[in-house]
Amino acid sequence: MKKKSKPTSRKDRPPEKSLSHHLLWLLPTLLAGLLYLPSLDGTWVWDDSIVLETQMKAFRSVGDVFLPPERIPQWPESYYRPVVTASYLLDQGLFDDEATRGPHGMGILFHAASTAFAALLAFLALRGRRERWWGALIAGALFAAHPIHVESVSWITGRSDTLAALFLLPALALAVRYRDDAHKPWGLALSAALFLLALLSKEVALAGLLVLPFWLAWIPRPDGSPNTVRWSSGAPRKLLLGWGTATGIYLVLRATAGASFGTSTLDTASLGAMIGRLASSFAYYLTQLVFPPPQLALVLDLPGALWTVSALIVFAGGVAWIFRTREDSKPQGRRIFFLAVGWLVLTLLPSLPVALSGLAEAPVAERYLYLPSFGLCLLIAAVLAAGLENRRRRTPSLVAAVLLVLVAGIGTVQRQEVWASDLALWTDTVEKAPSSGLAWSELGKAYLDRGSDLDRALQYYRKAVETDNDALGRAIAYNSIGVIHARRKQPEQALEAWRTAVAEGADYATPYFNLGNLLASHVDRAARQGRMEAAQLSEARAALQRAVEIDPRYDKAWLRLVWCEVHRALFTLATQGDPDETLAALAAAREATERLRSVASDQRMVAEAERLVGRGEEAVSRASAP
Fold first, then answer.
1. Distance between CA 591 and CA 382 in Å, rounded?
2. For a pLDDT cut of 70, what percent of the chain falls above it?
3. Which of 150, 403, 535, 623 is most buried when burial is the number of CB atoms within 10 A of its CB?
4. How far is residue 438's CA from residue 367's CA, in Å, rounded to a whole number?
5. How far apart are CA 443 and CA 456, in angstroms?
6. Is 364 strand, coil or helix?
7. Contact 69/598 with Cβ under 8 angstroms?
8. What is the pLDDT of residues 83-122, one digit of tens each?
9. Which candidate, 455, 424, 416, places its Cα nearest to that of 442?
10. How many other CB atoms sit within 10 Å of the CB of residue 589?
């Protein structure tokens, strides 16, 4: 009878050779940084000005990051990403408020660090391969160079997926390490903490709850022994408990902040339509991952049924072919195959419901592929690593790896040209999606900001009004049309445009302020000529009150409202002689001044408000004197 061999103890097994023993693992990290150097010269694009100039003014403490203040302009009720918000505040602390080079550099740094962790995780996944460190190098290089990442890296406010990956990848790597050596409890705590940070970066990290047990079960032990996972005890149970606790903390924080998951906006009219949109979204993402076409910021239409079915058949056929190749038909090949494809599918799942909701301008977006792309990179790296183990296929496999990284890198550099400025981005977008009202509006904004071609800006805004099916989008366009007329000293046309904007978008504060401000200017000019425009003053006051109701931190609107209340007091005193109404108007002016004091970005505005109130009180006092 054959004597059973004793299992190798942890002390007796040979130490696992770490990826850090090979300095070449640094190459993907350096490649990630070098490829994105052109992004350093980029400007603010798309939502950057809204987030960095307007929304970040509301955050004044660490507590605000986790419990955002109410009524932040254009802040979705489902948005809860404290780590991303903290990264913007860090940018503002390190650089000027209007800096672009520094924040772009931070985005590149996040991507480079994520690339390093991607290589490390690939190294763990490729256990059992003789050329595993080559495979990790290839996976990291492909992740660094994949063109699909440009939107996440080159767009300052597109960094949420990058940050989620920055924490989720090392969290999973630490989880595997802790499973292999439960004598290091710090690994368990740090893994759960990093997973919590990933969740606080973006909701897509919830996929980690599905990926964790999958990877714990399929990655072998360091000594190559079979991996038998006992979920009811030991390290796997502690890891699941730790990650579950992190998820619970995240959900509590999210609920405390009043953030929803946007489920109320899901389109559930037809089950068949839902399945079709989900399948089309999945087919679109697969196509983008494998054969990324020229960059498109707004994808308005999902692939048709024929394209969806064809893409799914090609994908299924491709993975079946890879699965049945001679090298990858071995147990270790099947294991890596399931790890890679499982990662791709599981991390893509949280993004698919966006296609059924109105949470974003488009049903699909390239930035959602940042995390799933690691699965494709790992799959390609595993195939090439298998080829490197064969002497006859070693050179072709190495050449293929170099060519893939080279082609991907060229695509990445080219795509950055589109994200260099608003003008470049939206010129490209309207050429590829001419039916997008948002794209025409943003292109008009790009020319309006330049100030050198108002005719073209006006043309594009009018095109936006014609093509945009969204009331808020039309309101934004009409507001900008009013701004153009105001710059051209055409007040009547400006008033008409802003009144139209107010009628279109009831929850958009800017046209209310613009309307109230221009009417107040008319009132002031008439008063200097000895005329009292009571109707215009009333309309101006109502518009400004609505502006601060929508955006309580709108300091310019508060200051102008102070002016209106003071002049209302003076007009009331002069025309009606009603002391109670006059005093009520002055009290409203003082209250508006106090509200301004709590939100003003410049204390000179508070001083101006106090001067206005003081002048009004003095005038009332003189008029009331015997």
1. 67
2. 84
3. 150
4. 18
5. 9
6. strand
7. no
8. 999 999 999 888 887 788 999 999 999 999 999 999 999 9
9. 424
10. 23
